[in-house]
Structure of DUF2179 domain-containing protein:
Amino acid sequence: MSWKILTRFFWVTVGVAITALGLDMFLVPNKIAAGGTSGVATILHYLLHTPVGMTMLALDVPLYAMGIYRLGWAFGLRSLYGSVALAVLVDVFSLFVPVPTQDPLLASLFGGVLVGLGLGLVFLFRGTTGGTDLAAAILRTYTDINIGQLLFLLDGVVVVAAGVVFQSWELSLYALISIFVATRVIDTVQEGISYTKAFFIISDHTEIIADKILHDLDRGATALKGRGLYTGNEREVILSVVNRSEVSRLKDIVYQVDPRAFIIVADMREVLGEGFKGYGHEK
């Protein structure tokens, strides 16, 4: 087994462990069924006193079988490790991890952060944990609805069921908060925190501005062809990507040359290439 594969398994395991901590420390003890098979397992835990982890795994078994049938062996089995590891760790951690809070709002927020961080790592290193992700992919083979909408629908059913079973619509609302937070954290882990900004600069003095970006700021710049639809005039638009610490310096450079310049500043999730992240980041 190559070092790359071992590294991937290591980080998937770390992600699964963080996810399990989020469930055991915050969500399950506070009856927050934040969608997915973990939400169903939480409901069954309080109804039938079944262990959450093994219930999650039992719910995943028919999904594996259907996934192999509908999507092939590779897709059905690649989530096996993550699902088994998550089920085992959820039940093991539940024996000794503390429950820091019984405040449902704090539990939904911090539980969402931990679950999102854990699942983000799992997805980042090309792992899965089965559950509703696998269910949505299977349902996608029967319908034209996209996977995102199917996931929202499946998680919504679980959240509503939790409200009925626990006789508390407040818990359902807290579950929605947890889902929202987890989703945002997953996106942040996979896409990265925005540390770079893209500048689109429209000016009558693009050559001077570009020269100062190249030599004073030591950053690259690209000239894009543009045409004003109102005036019909053609002009160059400068595109330059800088670090957050260089934003003010670039603004000063532009306005010193042309106080009437038009600037658009956009957040960049990830920038690859010279001066930024290298290409050897593939997981």
About this structure: The mean pLDDT is 84. DSSP finds eleven helices and four strands in the chain. Strands lie at 196-202, 222-227, 234-243, 262-268.
